[in-house]
C-alpha cells in the first residue's frame, strides 16, 4: 500500500532485473472476474502489455463503469507517454481498450483463458462459488488466481479438486493497480512450483515486480501494515498525539510517504475493520491476538459511516 523511501530506492534495481530476466510469459488470454477498482486496473495493465483480456462482471452497468475507470486511467498514461500528440494519445487508449472484451458470461470468458484472476467482492462464499464455476469452465491447464486481500487462498480453493488446487494461487495486486509495482504471488501448500514460476513470469511480463510468499493472513504487506495502523489508532485512543502529529512523525521520522491515518482513510476504514475483525475472530495463527483486537475509535467511525476519502470523512475531512 505504501513505500518507505528505502524500499522506493530498491524498486528500480528490481525492475532492471525483471527486464533482463527471462520474463516471457506463455499466458496470452486472461479473464478478470470483477470489474471494480481492482479488476479494471488488472485488466487495463494486462491489456497494455498485449494480453487479450475478458473482463467479467454481474451486469452491463458494472462493466461500463469498469471500462470508464480504464479509459480515465489510460488517458492519464497516454498524456505522459505522448505529451504533445493528442492523436497518439487517443490511438493508445483505443488500442489498449480494444484488447479488453466485456462479458457477463463467466463460463464463456474462463473457457478460453490461460489465466483467470478473480477480483470480485471480498466474501468467502461468493469466491468459493465463483471458483467452483471457474473450475468447471476453464481449460485444464489454466492457472486460477484470486486477488483477495484477507482470505486464505486454500480456503477459497477448498471446494476444488486436487488437480485444480495444484493450479490455484493468489495474485495480490495493490491499489491503484496501474501505479503500484508490487504483486504478491501467494503459494499454497498444494500449488505446483511450475504454476508459481508461470505466475511470476506473467507478473514480470506486465511490468510489475513479484514477491512470492506463503498463504498466511495478510501475506507480507498487510501482515506488517495492519498491526502498524492499529497501533497508530491505539496511540490516538490513549491521547498520545493527534492524527496529524502521528502522520507527520511517521512521514518525516520514518520516511513513509503517507502517515497511518492518511493510509486508513485512503484504504477505507470499513475495509481495515473487516480485515482485523476477521483475523481476530478466525485468522490462521492470529485469532485472539491483541494486535487485532477491536478498537472503539475505529468501530465508532465505521458505525457513523465515516469511512475515509470515499465518504468525505474518516480520521480527516475531505
Ligand atoms: N481495493 C483495494 O485496495 C484492494 C487491494 C487489493 C486487493 N483487493 C481485493 O480485490 C477484490 C476486489 O476489490 P475492489 O476494491 O475492486 O472491489 P469493488 O467493490 O470495487 O469491485 C468488485 C466488483 O466485483 C463485482 N462482482 C460482485 N460479484 C460478482 C460475481 N459473482 N461475478 C463477477 N463480478 C462480481 C462487483 O459488481 C464489482 O464491480 C477484493 O477481494 C479485495 O479484497 C482490494
Task: Indicate the topology.
Blueprint: H1 5-20, E1 29-33, H2 37-48, E2 52-56, H3 60-81, H4 86-98, E3 100-103, H5 106-111, E4 115-118, H6 124-137, E5 143-146, H7 153-156, H8 162-165, E6 168-173, E7 182-187, H9 193-205, E8 209-214, H10 221-237, H11 243-254, H12 260-267, H13 269-282, H14 296-303
Parallel strand pairs: 1-2, 1-4, 2-3, 4-5, 5-6, 7-8
Antiparallel strand pairs: 6-7
The structure holds nicotinamide-adenine-dinucleotide.
Subcellular location: Mitochondrion matrix
Family: Belongs to the 3-hydroxyacyl-CoA dehydrogenase family.
Domain 3-hydroxyacyl-CoA dehydrogenase C-terminal: 218-318
Could you characterize what this model shows?
This protein has 2 domains: 210 residues, 3-Layer(aba) Sandwich (Rossmann fold), CATH 3.40.50.720; 86 residues, Orthogonal Bundle (N-(1-d-carboxylethyl)-l-norvaline Dehydrogenase, domain 2). Helix 2 crosses helix 3 and helix 3 runs antiparallel to helix 4. It starts with a helix and ends in a 15-residue tail after the last helix. 51% of the residues lie in helices and 13% in strands. An 8-stranded mixed β-sheet has the order 3-2-1-4-5-6-7-8, with helices on both faces. By secondary structure, it is an alpha/beta fold. Helix 9 links the parallel strand 7 and strand 8. The chain binds nicotinamide-adenine-dinucleotide.
Amino acid at each position: 500500500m505504501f513505500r518507505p523511501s528505502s524500499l522506493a530506492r530498491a524498486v528500480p534495481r528490481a525492475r532492471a532485473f525483471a527486464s533482463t530476466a527471462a520474463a516471457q510469459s506463455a499466458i496470452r488470454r486472461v479473464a478478470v472476474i470483477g470489474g471494480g477498482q481492482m479488476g479494471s486496473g488488472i485488466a487495463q495493465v494486462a491489456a497494455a502489455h498485449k494480453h487479450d483480456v475478458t473482463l467479467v462482471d454481474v451486469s452491463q452497468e458494472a462493466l461500463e463503469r469498469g471500462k470508464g475507470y480504464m479509459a480515465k486511467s489510460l488517458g492519464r498514461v497516454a498524456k505522459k507517454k505522448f505529451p504533445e500528440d493528442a492523436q497518439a494519445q487517443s490511438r493508445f487508449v483505443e488500442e489498449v481498450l480494444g484488447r479488453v472484451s466485456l462479458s457477463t458470461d463467466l463460463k464463456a470468458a474462463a473457457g478460453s483463458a490461460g489465466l483467470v484472476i478473480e477480483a470480485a467482492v471480498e466474501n468467502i462464499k461468493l469466491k468459493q462459488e465463483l471458483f467452483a464455476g471457474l473450475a468447471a469452465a476453464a481449460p485444464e491447464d489454466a492457472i486460477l488466481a484470486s486477488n483477495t486481500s484477507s482470505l486464505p487462498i486454500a480456503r477459497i480453493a477448498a471446494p476444488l479438486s486436487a488437480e485444480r488446487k495444484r493450479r490455484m494461487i493468489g495474485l495480490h495486486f495493490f491499489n491503484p493497480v496501474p501505479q503500484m509495482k508490487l504483486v504478491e504471488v501467494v503459494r499454497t501448500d498444494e500449488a505446483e512450483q511450475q504454476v508459481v514460476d508461470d505466475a511470476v513470469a506473467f507478473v514480470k511480463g506486465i511490468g510489475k515486480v513479484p514477491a512470492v510468499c506463503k498463504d498466511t493472513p495478510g501475506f507480507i504487506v498487510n501482515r506488517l501494515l495492519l498491526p502498524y495502523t492499529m497501533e497508530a489508532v491505539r496511540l490516538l485512543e490513549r491521547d498520545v498525539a493527534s492524527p496529524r502529529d502521528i502522520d507527520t512523525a511517521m512521514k518525516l521520522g520514518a520516511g513513509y510517504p503517507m502517515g497511518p491515518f492518511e493510509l486508513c482513510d485512503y484504504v477505507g476504514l470499513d475495509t481495515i475493520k473487516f480485515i482485523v475483525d476477521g483475523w481476530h475472530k478466525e485468522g490462521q495463527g492470529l485469532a485472539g491476538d491483541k494486535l487485532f483486537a477491536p478498537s472503539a475509535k475505529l468501530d465508532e467511525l465505521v458505525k457513523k459511516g465515516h469511512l475515509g476519502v470515499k465518504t468525505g470523512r474518516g480520521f480527516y475531512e475531505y
